[in-house]
Amino acid sequence: MNYELNDEEQALYDRVKDFADQVVAPAAYEYDTKRRLPLEIIAQMGDLGLFGLPFPQDVGGQGKSYFQLCLAVEALGRVDQSIGVTLEAGVGLGVMPIYRNGTAAQREEFLPDLIAGRALAGFGLTEASAGSDAGATKTHAVLDGDEWVVNGSKQFITNSGTPITKLVTIVAVTGEEQRADGSVKKELSAIIVPNGTPGFEIGPDYDKVGWHTSDTHPLSFTEVRVPAANLLGERGRGYANFLQSLDEGRIAFAALATGAAQGCLEEAIRYANERVVFGANIGANQHIAFKIAKMQARVHQARLAWHDAARKMDAGKPFKLEASIAKMVSGEAAMDNARDATQIFGGYGFMNESPVARHYRDSKILEIGEGTTEVQLMIITRELGLAA
């Protein structure tokens, strides 16, 4: 396995890194305090072609690899996780399901704006009692003539309520099968619900610990009617199709976490070389130096893990195990590096204008979103053939 970037990959990473440093980073604190997604920055990301990276040119994409998308997510995550996850979720949960499972008409209607970054889309799976346990889904969709009638609710849905959000794809129960043992198997299907559809309500943005710039809302559906043609993919395959996107999304999520860990490392090195205490830079203190050395080791491990998973995915090889390892390792690396960087900064690290303070607040979700650390451990043990 070659972990070196080729010239094209390096050029992309450098280009997005420069954009992150020059455009995203200077605005990060302002938008974090306003708790608002900077649409002008999203538009610039669209102009750079970031939302179209892994899609072929014949649908308006850049014709690049999924690996290259992850490089862009990592570069953004260094300075602002909210912007990084907006790209990660916008592509993986917004565009990818429609590109992969949509009809020709659905793709023609929705892909151009989504791939260009002119619009965003969300994916509604999680509910109050359903997420990792999709079988507990309560949102229902009943076919009434040539329309689906949707009732239910979703929570924690990214990119669902921005001024440029065009649609949310939801997973709903579209039927039930009585099994011989008396249990009920739910038929789960994916349905496209355009924003603005009567009965579709977007709740207030959450008051989150971190990711203040990222758009996240609860959703409710009351007698929402959409055309039967809004079924995305085969009926009954909604959750199964989502699982594929989820496995892929864990790699991009790992890249985001690696970027966060890298950002904390860079800030810690800079501060350790600048901060003078008792006549010497604090980086000369072996305790500080060793802490930073461990931070570098975590970044290296996390990056190797997501590179391995992404390369295997792009090569068409099985990658489920590697994706879960990458997601778990990188999430822990981000949280540990954020904690250590904040400690190195001391009182300055406790001030919200400090990048490490924002990473400290933001990084906890990296151990929860896209499947908790505990879920990743379950997947890993099952992939190893253990009954856990």
TrEMBL record:
<comment type="similarity">
    <text>Belongs to the acyl-CoA dehydrogenase family.</text>
</comment>
<keyword id="KW-0285">Flavoprotein</keyword>
<dbReference type="InterPro" id="IPR013786">
    <property type="entry name" value="AcylCoA_DH/ox_N"/>
</dbReference>
<feature type="domain" description="Acyl-CoA dehydrogenase/oxidase N-terminal">
    <location>
        <begin position="6"/>
        <end position="117"/>
    </location>
</feature>
<dbReference type="InterPro" id="IPR009075">
    <property type="entry name" value="AcylCo_DH/oxidase_C"/>
</dbReference>
<dbReference type="GO" id="GO:0050660">
    <property type="term" value="F:flavin adenine dinucleotide binding"/>
</dbReference>
<keyword id="KW-0560">Oxidoreductase</keyword>
<dbReference type="Pfam" id="PF02771">
    <property type="entry name" value="Acyl-CoA_dh_N"/>
</dbReference>
<dbReference type="Pfam" id="PF00441">
    <property type="entry name" value="Acyl-CoA_dh_1"/>
</dbReference>
<protein>
    <submittedName>
        <fullName>Acyl-CoA dehydrogenase</fullName>
    </submittedName>
</protein>
<dbReference type="InterPro" id="IPR006089">
    <property type="entry name" value="Acyl-CoA_DH_CS"/>
</dbReference>
<feature type="domain" description="Acyl-CoA oxidase/dehydrogenase middle">
    <location>
        <begin position="123"/>
        <end position="224"/>
    </location>
</feature>
<keyword id="KW-0274">FAD</keyword>
<feature type="domain" description="Acyl-CoA dehydrogenase/oxidase C-terminal">
    <location>
        <begin position="236"/>
        <end position="384"/>
    </location>
</feature>
<dbReference type="InterPro" id="IPR037069">
    <property type="entry name" value="AcylCoA_DH/ox_N_sf"/>
</dbReference>
<dbReference type="InterPro" id="IPR006091">
    <property type="entry name" value="Acyl-CoA_Oxase/DH_mid-dom"/>
</dbReference>
<dbReference type="GO" id="GO:0003995">
    <property type="term" value="F:acyl-CoA dehydrogenase activity"/>
</dbReference>
<dbReference type="InterPro" id="IPR036250">
    <property type="entry name" value="AcylCo_DH-like_C"/>
</dbReference>
<dbReference type="InterPro" id="IPR009100">
    <property type="entry name" value="AcylCoA_DH/oxidase_NM_dom_sf"/>
</dbReference>
<dbReference type="InterPro" id="IPR046373">
    <property type="entry name" value="Acyl-CoA_Oxase/DH_mid-dom_sf"/>
</dbReference>
<dbReference type="Pfam" id="PF02770">
    <property type="entry name" value="Acyl-CoA_dh_M"/>
</dbReference>
